[in-house]
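Reading a protein record of the kind used here takes only a little practice. Think of the row as the fold of the chain written in a discrete alphabet. With that in mind, consider the following protein and its fold in token form:
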Amino acid sequence: MSSAAFAEDAEPGEQGPAGPLFVPVRPGPTGMSPRFFRTPLGFRTAVAFTSEQRLTSLLGAHHPRIRLSEPALRALAAPVGIALLTVDPLFSAPRPKRTETQDRTVGRAGHRRAMSGRTTC
């Protein structure tokens, strides 16, 4: 066998997802293409999910998706320079930094909400 046949085999100690993955896609000029995301550190990554429920919980029920194996997704990501694959990510949006004025406004609004919940005799 050629060495190319072994290039896609996982190392014995590595655990890879079993079976086809659910991959978010977007329409392009020649059909659908995988959506690529960025990690919190800014690296580009291909994203896949092990179940349809995990994909829909993060991206919504109507987000387009296809089923691909891990090697097929890596093959699609490689030409655009993406070597990182994230399976079942937990997206979290960074909290925007608030200014001192916003902190005072939020503090007052929170105080009003707390006061409105009290009953008076």
